[in-house]
Amino acid sequence: MTSISTAGHAGAMQGDRFAGLACGMGAGALWGLVFLAPKLVGDFGPLYLTIGRYLCYGLIAAALLTFRWRSLRARVARRQWLSLVWLAFAGNTLYYLLLSAAVQTGGIAMTSLVIGFLPIAVTLIGSRDRGAVPLARLMPSLLLCALGVACIGWQAVAQPVAGAVGTQLLGLACAVGALASWTAYAVGNARALHRLERMTPHEWNLMTGVITGAQSVALIPLAILLGTGGHSLSSWAWLGAVSMGIAVLASICGNALWNRMSRLLPLTLVGQMILFETLFALLYGLMWEQRLPTLLEAVALALVVLSVLSCLKAHRPAVLTG
Predict the structure, then answer these.
(1) What is the pTM assigned to this prediction?
(2) pLDDT value for 12
(3) Could you tell me the residue ranges of all domains in the chain?
């Protein structure tokens, strides 16, 4: 009886692993679009794109919460309000400002290289959690991750780049800042989701959207102060369309999948799921540039897949037979 119940528990855990993997892949596919958006609206700076995306996100989230706002507000503790404010800032407002600036000044390849180290940072932090998989078992996966990310960004580092060296260094600094900001968000959000008792992960996502929308409104005076740059009406309409598309696909749908995954997987495995964002960002970048992957990029794709499979193997629960 013990072996049967243990096997059943192990099977349920494996089911959660694969459901979490599917959600992580979906979130990565949608989040990869955020790397492409700064290229689509290159006439506008990072501040405008951030305001547009998160203003749309906030409005959609507020609309979806209209009929349950009063009930939900009563269930949110003061500590959770503070968590929502800083998570919205670290994972959305500040992160996307830095990411957009990095893409526009340093390019998609360099930015994806730096952001691609998120799995390593999050996994190293998660390995300290109680009951986490030992770091030694995760080392093969982390090594494959590091090699894959290095291949993805190699051309951006090793080959001559267009533009001034100072501009490239600014892009690199913004990418490193985005890495630090989103690492803090990924760890804090995963732990906050595991502590949720009186709301669902979807409601948590929508609440984050409302807070982020409020933060984007606070940025509007700064954008006005810096000036509009004389953009045409059609340019503003295009910015609005891209912002709405990214808000729906990446912020609403992508975040919902990510939060679902964060409830199903341990933090050491959550970190690896971020690789899918890097993978899809590279694929979208190739489509934008209308070319096939280079040899190094193809090797990187294989290494990313192997890294995730290796991490899944490390998290496979042992089934007792005695």
Answers:
(1) 0.77
(2) 54
(3) 31-314
